[in-house]
Amino acid sequence: MIHMPIYAPPGKSHANCVENLILFATIILLNRAYGSANLDGLAWYVVYCRIGQIISHCASVSELAITFRFMFFVAQLVFVGIMGYRTYQTIGPIKLHYTF
Q: How far is Cα 96 from Cα 34, in angstroms, rounded to an integer?
């Protein structure tokens, strides 16, 4: 087993959180700017799954903890996908007009 400093798992967890924040924030901002789909409940579920993923990431590196971490990650993706779909239903495709 590889021994890591005590700060390594929280640091990796924070980097992962920032990585996934871009898609989440984009959907929220698009929804607030162009639409009015109510995403508050789903957004909280994404946050709860994120907290669960962070806790399981920092708690252990056992196979069970890694399985729980992956389940929380997949749940986040599902909720963000539903949020994106609801936002798309509300605002439709965004048409960008480029002139060359």
A: 14
pLDDT digits (tens, 9 = 90+) for 17-60: 677 788 888 888 888 888 777 888 899 999 999 999 989 888 88
Report the C-alpha dihedral over residues 24, 25, 29, 35, rounded to 10 degrees. 10
- 3 state DSSP class of 27: helix
Which tokens sit at 44?
Answer: 């909280």
DSSP letters for 52-91: HHHHHHHH--SHHHHHHHHHHHHHHHHHHHHHHHHHHHHH
Global pTM value? 0.74
Among residues 87, 12, 10, which one has the least CA distance to residue 43? 87
Single-letter code of the amino acid located at 95: K
Largest CA distance in the chain: 57
